[in-house]
């Protein structure tokens, strides 16, 4: 049970990471960095 949960959790993390990377690739990162500093 626990091992299966860990595997599903890892898959979820991978999906979230890919989702955020796709979002960041489309966002104007330069403007965000300038706004922060």
TrEMBL record:
This is Uncharacterized protein. It comes from Nymphaea colorata. The lineage of its organism: Eukaryota, Viridiplantae, Streptophyta, Embryophyta, Tracheophyta.
